[in-house]
Specification:
Blueprint lengths: L5 H10 L19 E12 L2 E12 L3 E5 L6 H8 L7 E6 L2 E2 L5 H6 L2 E4 L11 H8 L8 H6 L1 H21 L15 H14 L4 E5 L7 H17 L3 E6 L2 H7 L2 E6 L2 E6 L1 H6 L1 H11 L1
Parallel strand pairs: 3-8, 3-9, 6-7, 7-8
Antiparallel strand pairs: 1-2, 1-4, 4-5, 9-10
Helix pairs in contact: 4-7, 6-7
The site of magnesium ion has 3 residues, from helix 2.
GO molecular function: ATP binding; ATP hydrolysis activity
GO cellular component, one term: plasma membrane
Keywords: ATP-binding, Nucleotide-binding, Transport
Length: 287
């Protein structure tokens, strides 16, 4: 039953109560089966270029879901559709019971989707702590200005937000860099700080766009370790977009492989890694 398509799984889930799942389930099937994000038949075009062509998949609560594919496959485009930066011409995207297509990026962030960027998205002149505090901005009821007018309430809120940020600093072992301007952080640490900024938003779904791009082996292993730690400590689902297949194979519960905007394989990391179409796409890209 691990070989069912995403559609078949979705049907199976809606039709069968959780306790009706047969024995012999894989580790993937023992995950929380609740669908958090449902992407159906999404097509995105730029003039003559079809960046995404009828892409469908779902992500379950607490799942680490990976999207792989060669450069230009459409990975970043998926994220831009999920967070409202691009509007697909066709298809639906649903988070819980909320339809996302047509909503503005800020509205989608407020619904619980946070992202990191392929290129760093930190404010270089602000300290690491202040960057993380900005990540919480949408959670703050009192703005900076009203905060000054209503000092007591703002003070209590600030204490709460600082405490949440400090937890992330501890989780990601960023203590030594708390007061360092983001622009001066070593590259690997800056990528981790960006992860921290996204986590500070308390997302239910975190989108990670090539979190190890440009990293050496040691930095990559570090990042993998922190991602595992984040998963263990926080209740959130992650979609990891990655060019480098090795990282994905170690971390992901399920993998979706894209090439030229089309889904060419999906399943467990093992299934996808062995899929001839995936091997072909990667070898073709390298040639
Ligand atoms: N804003 C855009 N305008 C025009 N074409 C774009 C735009 N964004 C992406 N594309 C095209 O869509 C395709 C997929 O790009 P992208 O999603 O960035 O791929 P990946 O992240 O997998 O490398 C590419 O052909 C790219 O050139
Ligand atoms: Mg990309």
């Amino acid at each position: 039953m691990e070989h069912l398509s995403a559609e078949a799984r979705a049907v199976e889930r809606t039709d069968a109560p959780p306790d009706a799942v047969p024995d012999g389930q894989s580790s993937v099937d023992s995950l929380d089966e609740t669908v958090l994000l449902d992407v159906r038949d999404v097509t995105l075009r730029f003039g003559g270029v079809t960046a995404l062509d009828g892409v469908s998949f779902d992500v379950r609560r607490g799942e680490l879901f990976a999207v792989i594919g060669p450069n230009g496959a459409g990975k970043t485009s998926i994220f831009n559709c999920l967070n409202g930066v691009y509007r697909p011409q066709q298809g639906t995207i649903t988070l819980g019971d909320k339809r996302l297509v047509g909503r503005a990026p800020a509205a989608i962030a407020a619904l619980g989707i946070a992202r990191t960027f392929q290129n760093l998205g930190l404010f270089e002149h602000l300290t690491l702590i202040d960057n993380l505090m900005l990540g919480r901005h949408h959670l703050m009821r009192t703005g900076f200005l009203t905060g000054m007018l209503w000092w007591g309430r703002a003070k209590r809120e600030e204490v709460r937000h600082r405490a949440a940020v400090e937890e992330i600093v501890e989780l990601l072992e960023l203590e030594p860099y708390r007061r360092t301007p983001a622009g001066l952080l070593p590259y690997g640490v800056a990528k981790r700080a960006e992860l921290g900024r996204a986590l500070a938003m308390e997302p239910t779904l975190l989108l990670l766009d090539e979190p190890v791009a440009g990293m050496n082996l040691e930095e990559t292993e570090d990042m993998a370790r922190y991602l595992i730690e984040v998963r263990r400590e926080l209740d959130l689902a992650m979609i990891l977009v990655e060019h480098d297949m090795r990282l994905v194979m170690d971390l992901a519960d399920r993998v979706l492989a894209l090439d030229f905007g089309v889904v060419i394989a999906s399943g467990t990391p093992d299934e996808v890694q062995r899929d001839p179409k995936v091997i072909e796409a990667y070898l073709g890209g390298a040639a």
